[in-house]
Amino acid sequence: MKKIFMLMMFSVVSVFAFEHLNVMNIDEKLENKNVIVDFYATWCPPCKIMTKNMIAYDKVKSPDVTIYKVDVDQEPELSEKFGIRTIPTLLYFKNGKLIKQEVGIKTIPELKANVKKYLK
Fold this sequence. Notes:
The protein has five helices and five strands; from the N terminus they run H-E-H-E-H-E-H-E-E-H. The chain is α/β, with parallel strands linked by helices. The chain has a five-stranded mixed beta sheet with strand order 1-3-2-4-5.
């Protein structure tokens, strides 16, 4: 029982490791920044893997890259605005402009390469 509780706590804490975007703050948060936005759902197993990868990537990423999350169940307007149909989906923004949208789990090396390709 202790292991299950600890696993659940890690899952909940890891989801809140990044600031969440909503319709009220997204424009301000994306302005003049290099940003990765992770669209996810709490019930989605691949999203949990992606969250773990994002946490690991956050420890080695360049300080000029910011990571935000959007819970598709909590922010359906944002999901609709960006055409999110599958999760996990990552959006790469440079200075508030959408550069690339990618679907599926990304590894840390893939995240590094994508940031170099899309945000540098």
